Amino acid sequence: MGDMRTRTGPAGAPPRGRAPKTAAAVSTVQQYSLAKIVGVWAAAAVPMGALAWVVAPLVGGHGGPVPLARALLVCLTVGLVWQFVLVLLLVHWEQGSLNWRVLKESLWLGAPRDPSSGKVGGRLWLVLIPATLLFAAGGLLPTFPPVAGHDLGGFLDSPAGQAFMSHNWTWLAVMVVLMVFNTVLGEELLFRGLLLPRMRGVFGRWDWVANGALFAVYHLHMPWAMTATLLTDTLALAYPSLRYRSALIGIIVHTSQSVLMLGLLISLVLQ
């Protein structure tokens, strides 16, 4: 993907991207070139597509829907964990540290900040309400039919899926790990925490639109979701995260989906 660091800085100062490797290192959000943005996107999207359409069918493509579903769950979890590792590698490459202060500044992990007054937190958290409602409305949009056997939601709705989940606490734990790395430590941390703050140099004030588009086409592992993702996630996740300089908004709103899914999964396990 090339060198993710910029190499210029104030006279007499070390180049950005070579911050002292100390706990007190001050994080600065650097701007990526188009090539770097696309490279990071590809490093997340291509493995997910390959794991879903090549590795999972090879591992579990025979013997009915249950082996394929198990293979998909494991493969997608691996892909999401890789995204978390990728974020840490890139931040360390830029900042020379993974100290919490560095991570918080580099990945916009602070409370929302009013762009006009500079006020932090408080009533600004109310943006979660319309953002979550808009995100939920995305489930009502028409989508392309999913590919048979690759739609985990459809699998859980099927008799085979419900029988598989009944009293299956082990696979519930696997799904919980998948959900955590999906909406907290994986996709959102990468797209809203890492990429979004670094896209203005290329896309200007339309960086949130470009971020939403990248997130939509990232879904190579489930392309039938791309249209709804483009329309709703851009407005419900990318825009408020940018406006209030807080990736926590996208993380929390996206996690609302996981909370609902967890409730469904627990009900299936208890059957």
Notes on the structure:
It is a single chain. It is globular, with a radius of gyration of 20 Å. The N terminus is likely disordered. Helix 4 runs antiparallel to helix 11. Helices cover about 60% and strands about 0% of the residues. It has 12 helices and no strands. The chain has about 270 residues and is an all-alpha fold. It has one domain.
DSSP E strands, number = 0
Helical region count? 12
Distance between the termini: 48 Å
> What can be said about the biggest beta sheet?
none
Strand content: under 5%
Number of separate domains:
1
Overall average pLDDT? 85
Structural class: mainly alpha
State the low-pLDDT regions, or none: 1-27
Rg calculated over all Cα atoms: 20 Å
- The helix content, as a percent range, equals 55-70%
**How would the global form be characterised?**
globular
SSE sequence, one letter per element:
HHHHHHHHHHHH
